[in-house]
Design brief:
Rossmann fold, five-stranded parallel β-sheet, binds ligand Z5A, binds magnesium ion
């Protein structure tokens, strides 16, 4: 992608990496865009590692995969805590890579965790409850939310194969995701990008955001990543 006029220099040796999360609706293009962003950052000389959640390669991830493919049943709270535990498995690794100067690009994170579980509308599983097990995880420097309505998502490849890929669930999840723009630290961490454009147009909008974050991280050498804090007040 063309970024020449606003290129960034390779990582400053004295700075930590940036922790960037790609969130969004099903089939919004998160994995596609993580790949493109990795390529662009590496072209500019940055060290980059990618991670995705759920990480289906761990023992807990295998259980999550079985659930998403409707091979096993699990109580709503139990699967929710497994998704969270799957992130905690990687928390120390994320902190370590960031301190070594790697840019971490993360494909889904705790935003998906709380939103998809709350989208089930189980009266005993609120958004607030769902967020709690993730308090204390590494807090992203920026969360890019790729917004796509369910009708557009359904036109894209592979839709409908997994458990949550149903119209009502997707519409509930989208409403909850967008509602995070007005809540707690998520309101300052999250930026919404319209994912209904071409891959290149979306990549360009993402780059505009990422560039700002990388510059900010590089100007404050060795500042630690902060952690996800508790929601202290109900708006
Ligand atoms: N889940 C949860 O409940 N709790 C949690 O804590 C977490 C997740 C972390 C599986 O996630 C499910 O887990 C998910 C949330 C839940 N359920 N739902 N819904 P996953 O990340 O493993 O899901 P996935 O299989 O990777 O699908 P995805 O992430 O939704 O897709 P994507 O990464 O956003 O899209 P993509 O793979 O990049 O692209 C999809 C297709 O669209 C592909 O054919 C592309 O070529 C095409 N595409 C991409 N961009 C465009 C544009 N701009 N225009 C046209 N076509 C495009
Ligand atoms: Mg994906």
């Amino acid at each position: 992608m063309a970024v020449s006029s606003e290129s960034l220099n390779a990582s400053n040796a004295a700075s930590r990496g940036a922790f960037i999360v790609m969130e969004g609706m099903d089939r919004a293009g998160k994995t596609t865009q993580v790949g493109k962003l990795r390529h662009t950052l590496e072209e500019q000389g940055h060290k980059v590692k990618t991670i995705r959640f759920p990480d289906r390669t761990t023992p807990m991830g295998t259980m999550i995969d079985g659930y998403l493919q409707s091979k096993t049943e699990m109580a709503d709270h139990a699967i929710h805590l497994l998704f969270s535990a799957n992130r905690w498995e990687k928390a120390a690794w994320i902190k370590e890579q960031i301190s070594q100067g790697y840019m971490i690009l993360c494909d889904r994170y705790y935003y998906s965790g709380m939103v998809y579980s709350a989208a089930k509308k189980n009266p005993a599983l609120s958004l607030e409850w769902a967020r709690t097990p993730d308090v204390g995880l590494p807090r992203p420097d920026r969360v890019i939310f790729l917004d796509l309505n369910a009708a557009e998502a359904e036109k894209r490849g592979g839709y409908g194969e997994e458990k949550y890929e149903k119209r009502e669930m997707q519409e509930n999840a989208r409403e909850l995701f967008l509602g995070l723009a007005g809540r707690g630290e998520e309101s300052s961490d999250m930026v919404v990008i319209d994912a209904g454009h071409s891959v290149e147009q979306v990549a360009s909008a993402i780059w505009d955001e990422v560039m700002k974050v990388v510059k900010a991280v590089e100007t404050v050498p060795r500042r630690e990543l902060s952690v996800v804090g508790a929601w202290t007040q109900v708006p």
